[in-house]
Amino acid sequence: MKASDLIAQYQHGHRDFNGVYLSEANLNTAQLPGINLAWAKLTCAQAIDTDLTNAKLFGADLSKICLELAHVPQRSQDLAGADLSHANLQGANLQGANLTTASLVAAQLNQANLQQANLTATDLSLANLQGANLKQADLSRSRLIATNLSRANLDKANLQGAVISMADLAGANLQRVNLSASDLNEADLSNANLEEADLSLVDLSNANLQGANLRGADLTGARLCNAQLEGANLRFVKMSKANLRGADLRRSHLIAADLSWSDLRQTQLGETNLAKADLSRCWLHEADLTAAKCANADLRLCDLRGAILVGADLQRSLLSLSNLEEANLRGANLIEADLSYAYLRGANLDEADLSYANLEEVILEQASRNGAIGLTIEIARFDDYAPSGIQHWQQYDQYQSCDRQVLQRSKVEIEQFDF
Length: 419
What we know:
Blueprint: H1 3-11, H2 387-408, H3 411-416
């Protein structure tokens, strides 16, 4: 059917064009509110500034269509299952539209209005959504692989279980968004706003979060292996049982963050602010905490073997029962720190300040302490036996082994840790 014939019939009151063939048709500026184009073939059609308000497009083939500035249906099921792959929807008004299970692969949706749209299980891979409005949209279980969402507004959107790997979310607004159990592997979230977002059980491995705002976000059980978080705002985050192995957190802000039970092995934490953070029972083996700010932090029962803590501020921190074997604490500030029953065999404490620190039963066998302040042989143990301290460390190992067995029975821990 020719576009002119369809418009003429519409003007005479005909509304049902179910299954009509309109490939490459020119419908620019046409006024077609309420038209039934279900299962119609509109591939490569032109519909710039076309009025399709309340139109029925269920199952229609709209691939490569141009709907720029068009008014499209917002009623239930109107675009469900539609094929809009490669369609030009730049600036289109899709507010409240139902696009469940639709295909929008490589579609142009930049600056489009998708506020409160239903995009459940929709495929938006390779689509351009730069600057689009997706506020309160439902994108749960959707596919957004390599999608451009830079500077998009996703405030309070639902992306639970979505696959967003390799997507560009630089500068996007993701405040209070639900991203739980989603896949953001290798995604670019630099300078994105993720304040108070739900990122529990999310996979952010190799993702770029440099300069991102994650204040108050929930990252419980999240996977952030080798992620880039340099300069990120992580104040008050919940990151318990997260896997951050090999991540770069230099100069980030983790004030009062909960990192308990997390895997931080070989992480870069230089100059990071960890004041009042909970790092109890963390794995920090060979982590770099050079010049880190850890005042009043909880580091009890931590594995800090071979960790670099040169010049770190550990004033009033809790390090009791932690393993600091061969850790480098040169020039560290340990004033009033609690090191009771800690294991510092072979550690470097040169020029460290341990004034008023609690050194009850601490083990300092073969530790270097040249120029250290506050170390007295009456308080600390330097001998080869230190039976009481060793007993406590062995007891800690038993506790940790038992705890790991408990964690291994948890699905979260099986997914997030390498035991």
